Amino acid sequence: MTIPERAARRCWHAAINPLHATIYFSPDLGKEYAGLGITDRVAVNLASRSAAMGAVGAGAVTATFYNYRHDLVSRHLPAVWETATPEQALAARLRAVDSTLRRLLGPQTIESAELAEAADLAIRATEACTRHARTLYAAHADLPVPEEPHLRLWHATTLLREHRGDGHLAALLLADLDPVEALVSHTATGRGMTPKWLKIIRGWEQSDLDAAQERLAARGILDADGELTAEGQDLREALEADTDRLDAAPYEHLGAEGLARLAELGGGFVMQAVGAGAFPGDLFGKV
To answer: N or C: which end of the chain has fewer CB within 10 A?
Structure first.
């Protein structure tokens, strides 16, 4: 490897994924989708993320998203496509990205040479992404690359986010973690979503979370208090290491210097966005 160990992982968690994820908590997305006739918060989330795959149904989306409760997905898909087409949903999402980033970052950052540089670096990294067995990445890779730098940056972070995410699903399967166990064990690290948001966004009930915690405890992954055991910590680190290995190509292609610069620039933009209220204060943590 030509890049420092875990450097790509740190960049992804600190810069790439948060920049992409700003859209999921933006009021602008709800406003744009309301204009299409889609007002339910879950329907907005599902349609905005799955639209790149076309008017697919609940089965395909549950499989591709991995950790959403299927009955939540089937409540909205494919019915949402009777209200708006995937093409309309994608256009509305991009309009929301535009207004969201302009609001969170401000005109000075949006027009800066640094943002354009970050967009170029992120796009360069995507040149080494691969489509095979990466459904969400491949679907988004078929979309046109926007011209404006802040939209190009968001598009690139979307590609990099879904590329790593698709590989992570393979690692979860190998670790024998079902959708709820994956979420509960991630929450136990302190870096995953709180149970409140697992219920709101993913559709799980408290009974689902409790049952998953019991199964993980029986496997020695969690202790009686729901904390990761030493074995559980090893499992979560192995998951990340496997995901790193499956996702190494874009960052090797970018090189150590380019990766460090992308992490520096992107991390700065994320801090700006967080300071401007991009995410709910109770989104991450154990409780």
So the answer is: C
CA–CA distance, 122 with 156 (Å, rounded to integer): 6
Q: In 10 A of CB 108, how many CB atoms?
A: 8
User: What is the dihedral angle through the alpha carbons of 202, 163, 24, 209, rounded to the nearest 10 degrees?
Assistant: 20
Backbone angles phi, psi at 96, to 5 degrees: -70, -40
The per-residue pLDDT for range 221-249, each reduced to its tens digit, is 999 999 999 999 999 999 999 999 999 99
How many whole angstroms separate alpha carbon 261 and alpha carbon 41? 36
CA distance 266 to 251: 14
Beta bridge partners of 228: 222
Crossing angle of helices 86-110 and 27-34, in 10° steps, is: 140
Number of neighbours of residue 28 by Cβ within 10 angstroms: 21
DSSP string, 76-104: HTTGGGGTS-HHHHHHHHHHHHHHHHHHH
Q: Which tens digit of pLDDT belongs to each residue from 50-95?
A: 999 999 999 999 999 999 999 999 999 999 999 999 999 999 999 9
